[in-house]
Amino acid sequence: MAVSAQAKKRIRQNERRKAVNGHRLTTVRTYIRKVEAAIESGDKAEAVAALRVAEPHMARGARKGVMPRNTTSRKLSRLSKQIKNMAA
Fold first, then answer.
1. Domain total in the chain
2. How much is the pTM?
């Protein structure tokens, strides 16, 4: 249990950050799922549009420290590759 005022404040800050970061991560995952669903449906135009919407959210998540930069980059690369390999 925190005794000092500083330790108590850190606990409060961590709780707030956890809530915000959890929301950010959920948002990123939702957009990734939308891209994957569009790829599964076979509609290339829809998949490209979904990726264009998802990319800034993923980049923002990486910038804010919700996801590692390399993880974000790898996911974007793999999604782009899947879309590129789709039949037009």
1. 1
2. 0.85
